[in-house]
Amino acid sequence: MSLPLEGQVAIISGGLGDIGRAIALELARRGADVAVGDILEAEKAHPLLTQIRALRRRPRYDRVDVSDADAVAAWVEAVAQELGPPTLIIPNAAVATFMPLPELTPQGWRRELSINLDGAFYLAQLATQKLVALGRPGRVVFIGSWAGHAVHPTIPAYCVSKAGIRMLMKCMAAELSPHGILVNEVSPGYVNAGLSGRWFAADPKRAEYARASVPVRRLIEPGEVAAQVAHLCDPSNLHITGTALIMDGGLSLFGFGGQKPAPSHE
Question: Per DSSP, what are the bridge partners of residue 59?
Answer without folding.
Answer: 34
